[in-house]
Amino acid sequence: MTNKKKQNRVIYICLIALLVTASVLIAIASASNKAKVEPNDGAFHEGDRVKQTSEKEEIPTETEKDNKPAKDTETQKTSAEKEPTQAVSLTIDDISFVPPADGSISMGYSVSVPVYSLTMNDYRTHNGVDIVTEASAKVRACADGEVVSMGRDPMMGMSVRIAHEGGVESVYRNLSDELSEGIKVGSKVLAGDVIASVGDTALAECEEEPHLHFELVSAGKSVDPSEFIFIPKLDESYEG
User: Fold this and answer.
1) Can you tell me the distance from the alpha carbon of 229 to that of 100, in angstroms, rounded to the nearest whole number?
2) Which H/E stretch holds residue 36?
3) Residues 139, 178: contact at Cβ < 8 Å?
4) Interval 34-70: pLDDT, tens
5) Is the pTM value of this prediction over 0.85?
6) Residues 101, 60: contact at Cβ < 8 Å?
7) Which among 2, 9, 149, 213 is least surrounded, fewest beta carbons within 10 Å?
8) Which domain holds residue 186?
9) For 3-24, how does the pLDDT look when each residue is reduced to its tens digit (9 = 90+)?
């Protein structure tokens, strides 16, 4: 009886050992299968298709989608505000002129139709206006600007040229030899500043009454001063 119990005990021990061994083998097989199904090489397996995923793909939330256009708009607005404002281009129409001398126009501007010259005794074009005034009358700058040239012209006598904004220049001829104090190349002048006095230095117009020969130039082209400055006409027949 005792031997039979010993045999049964041995059988039980063997069965337990077999179960433990089987459990260990099952665990090992399960771990091996899991490693094959879920490799740790950074690849994502879906059936027979493999997709490399070196980085985690971030999907924006609905809130982020709504905020992104607003952020872009704000960035564009900031960039636009930083852009320098372009300077406004001025023209002769933007300048406020004053008459360069007290008087009336005796000979008007005429570059398309020749007019008679009493001094030269012929017909020729006239690219300015002659303002009849008193001898030695004051000559004034017609607008703010800078003196860019001065000197005696062989035919039109002592002359001063002033540059203004918008590519505009004014020219004063038949002046006296002596200019006003402080008037030189580079001098800044304001509208109405006295720059000289009327003289008799223009040989081409010496037979005329005392006058200022006045010209306007815009963008390098001669223009009619009477279209931009009100100066009464002495004789309407000289409209040109």
Assistant:
1) 9
2) helix 2-37
3) no
4) 555 444 454 444 444 444 444 445 555 555 555 555 5
5) no
6) no
7) 2
8) 92-238
9) 666 666 767 677 777 777 777 7
